[in-house]
Amino acid sequence: MKGRWRFPAIRSSHFPAALFGIISVGLMLSSGIHMGFLILMNRLGLNDLVQTVVPIVYWRGYFRLQHTR
Fold first, then answer.
1. I need a surface site. Which of 2, 10, 15, 61 has the fewest CB within 10 A?
2. Which of 34, 51, 33 has the alpha carbon at shortest distance from 42?
3. Are 51 and 38 in contact (CB under 8 A)?
């Protein structure tokens, strides 16, 4: 058989690049806020238990707010 191998054309992604950028920026922003809370609590000299509970309560409130809409 003479000829070249025939491969299917590469499809372009159906996932928009702008949506990927928005999600990435949102995740970086939320992780920066989270780390800021931890650094602030550490500099204030708060107990380790408080430093653990405050982000848990913060994220629980955030997710509860998202699911009530």
1. 2
2. 51
3. yes
Calculate the CA 5 to chain-centre distance.
42
> Which range, 1-10, 33-42, 59-68, is most confident?
33-42
- Calculated CA dihedral for residues 58, 64, 68, 69, nearest 10 degrees: 50
Contacts of 54 (CB under 8 A, 6+ apart): 37, 41
More confident residue, 55 or 46: 46
How is residue 64 written in tokens? 């509860």
Q: pTM, whole model, 2 decimals?
A: 0.56
Position 44 scores a pLDDT of 94
